[in-house]
Amino acid sequence: MSSHTLKFVAAVAFVSALFLGGTGVAFAQTPDQVKAEFARAVYQTSAAKVHNERPQPLLRAVVVLRVKLDEQNQWKAEVFRDNPEQPEMTRAALESVAKLPAPTGLTPRAAEILRNEGLIEAWLFQNDGRFALKTLAKPQRGA
Fold it and tell me: Quick one: which of 5, 53, 69, 132 could link to 137 by a disulfide (CB 3.0–4.6 Å)?
């Protein structure tokens, strides 16, 4: 593993440690904070598949999921947009959501929003299969 990768993994672990508590992820309350903390949780639980580089100009795939909480407080994702020629990228995005622990510390309003509306997030895949989430991604490189 390169020193750049090790630094990134350490940074993700540090940031994630701020939000992990008990058996799940402790989420902030504004919609933007909830979305950013959701993305950080995905980064933490899928660290080996995440990159922290500027996304390449022509992405391998873009997968957009609508993510909600079910009545058992578990994350459920539905495909909003995918690349039919790249089903393995859709599976990787769905699996990254399936790995997430249940969130903790949500206000009743935040929980209601996540159950009813959820959030929409885009997985930006590089040629090597690693991804960044749009919410936390650096600006894409020019062609």
Answer: 132
The H or E element that residue 94 is part of is helix 87-98
DSSP 47: G
53, two tokens: 């580089």
Give the separation between CA 93 and CA 96, rounded to whole angstroms.
5
Who contacts 77 (Cβ-Cβ below 8 Å, separation ≥6)?
65, 66, 67, 68, 93, 94, 97, 98
Give the tens place of pLDDT for each residue, 98-142: 999 998 888 888 888 899 999 999 999 999 999 999 999 999 888
How many whole angstroms separate alpha carbon 140 and alpha carbon 91? 23
Nearest Cα to Cα of residue 49 among 95, 18, 103:
95
Amino acid sitting at position 37 = E
Residue found under tokens 């995005």:
93
CA distance 27 to 21: 10
Round to whole Å and give the CA distance between 101 and 99. Answer: 7
Spatial contact of 21 and 118, defined as CB atoms under 8 Å apart: no
Cα 110–chain centre separation: 18
CB atoms within 10 A of CB 12: 19
